[in-house]
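Predict the holo structure. Ligand: SN-glycerol-3-phosphate.
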Amino acid sequence: MKFFADTAEIAEIRELAATGLLDGVTTNPSLIAKAGRNFIEAVREICELVEGPVSAEVAATDEETMLAEARKLAAIAENVAIKVPLTWAGLKTCRTLSQDGIMVNVTLCFSANQALLAAKAGAAFVSPFVGRMDDVGEDGMALIRDIRTIFDNYPDLGTEVLAASIRHPRHITEAALAGADVATVPPSVLKQIVNHPLTDKGLAQFLADWKKTGQSIL
Ligand code: G3P
């Protein structure tokens, strides 16, 4: 499973990119507002930090303006993936952009039928929002499983399942078990999953025992 960082904060992206384990980035209008950066400049900077797909979302809701915004965003860098909402205008925009060879991430997905439409529109990624479904008492991970099953029934569909709205480490595990192609994760949660108390305890014991040998490897 690929790990994307769900943030527009440059410092966090730089830190995670330095691990060599970051496969891409997703932003959205709320994350851009939170970062307080110029959108175009932030996307350009992120694309220079990360080789993988960097999602940049259009702000328009009509097809004509979405297309104009998308072409401006796509011109920033080759690894820009255009985010469009799961609406008829977004799907028509996705279809046009994907036919022009531009990566599209169809976002705000909350049903398997919506995901199927996004795949039929040629999306590179579809983003089911797991956490926001859980927030209203639905089973967000069941949606990931349903979409995975449907997409596997039709191998010609080239759309990747991008599990989004990830809230905690268990969501990452469950997304991987469900067969998501990507999980886009807040940096705080990504940094959390490397930790386990037994790892820390075991390493401390190894170091203490090694010290007793009085040896040095170098
Ligand atoms: O960026 C798309 C998605 O990951 C948003 O997540 O936490 O705002 O529900 P969240």
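The first helix runs from residue 10 to 17. The chain has one domain: 2-213.
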